Amino acid sequence: MKQIVISGTGVFTPEESITNQELVKAYNSYAESYNLVNKDDITQGNKVELELSDAEFIFNASGIKNRFVMDKKGILDPNIMHPILQRRSNDEPSILAEMSLKAAKKAMERAGKKANDIDAVITACSNLETANPAISIEVQALLGIKGFAFDMNVACSSATFALQAAADMIRSGSAKTILIVDPEICSGHLDFKDRDCHFIFGDVCTAMILESKETARSKNSFEILSTKCLTKFSNNIRNNFGFLNNAKKSSPLDRDLLFMQEGRKVFKEVVPLVSQLIIDHVDAEKIKIDDIRRLWLHQANKSMNDLIGKKVLGRVPEMHEQPNILQDYANTSSAGSIIAFSLYSEDMKNGEIGVLCSFGAGYSVGSVILRKIG
Questions:
Q1: How far apart are CA 109 and CA 218, in angstroms?
Q2: Residue 364 pLDDT greater than 70, yes or no
Q3: Catalytic residues
Q4: Going by fewer Cβ within 10 Å, which terminus of the chain is more open, N or C?
Q5: Are 257 and 240 in contact (CB under 8 A)?
């Protein structure tokens, strides 16, 4: 069987960031104003008083201290509470394509690849800016890549599902070298007026180059030993925004058109699902748990990751065994595990094995077993 490798990764990080303290100040200002304006209705029981947030609550609930965003001014304005991204003309690059270019160029440089070395582009992310044309085709054109391109969405597992699709295509011969980009502007679908989730997400873009081992020249390549994907329907994480909104009696302010989740249910159901999938996947490849040197997990919640790591390894993981980037980036959907992999992989030795795993809405779980070869 043809050996496929990830030969380069890249991470684009927005210039602006928001600390927990900044976020709390803006939210509390909004909540206090809301409670004052609706004082009579709250007293009469017609409306619920908004509880104030605090930085310690956020960190304890998630492990998050900071998040990068494409626009902080609108998010931190109590009268707006969402990012403000200027509308672009059809002749300008879309913002997702622009982010993808910056991450892609870093991945291409690390892999030693130019545009004419790549013959396919996959854009895999939770939220696509346009219905058509595909963001991936736009990225393809902006980079000058020939061949084909397509978009795909499996929420937080988009990147790992794209890895399986790309590896399968290279093995089948339909492509030789593939660029995967994961542009995530998660701040755009987050309700910053909701205390229970206003702190969860951040913005970022990651990129990966996949190719056969024979053509790889990178000094930091990882062979894809095996991939395993699983989906199981659940409404516990949901976002109802879509192209049919205009055909329904709804407005952009409707709560269910933004990110929603039943956090406790997600934790209870996803942890055993993900843990068992990783254990079964490793066992099927006849790899011993003790031989796993690193877990690059989806960065959604530190407590969730800690418990998954403990169930998989049979003990509490050391910090270097399970890198955590949540404190700096927050939840960046499909890009989270790729950030952890990109930032914490070069120190691994030849032959060492790691597992890249994502999980999220759907539910969807993607597991990729990797071995360092360069």
A1: 9
A2: yes
A3: 156
A4: N
A5: yes
